[in-house]
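User: Structure please.
Assistant: Input sequence and predicted structure:
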Amino acid sequence: MKHIGAVQAVVTADEPNREPTAAELDAIELEWPVIRANIELLDAQIITLDRTPTELDQRRIRRARRKVLAARRALANHSTSGSPGVA
């Protein structure tokens, strides 16, 4: 029986315990409101998985969706406002 080995080179980082850089941490912090809003939306949706959504559940989901959209809009506006020369 023939042994089938990997043909491609290893794609993992050289340092398995590498910490995130300052730039990566800044990017995460900038995106954190979007991440938090998505978590709130998922929480609201998970609550309704095993039952019929009540009016309160539906309002909670709508509110969470609006938070996600607002957070995405704020992030997009922040990203474009920091770029000089963008019209």
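The chain has a mean pLDDT of 85.
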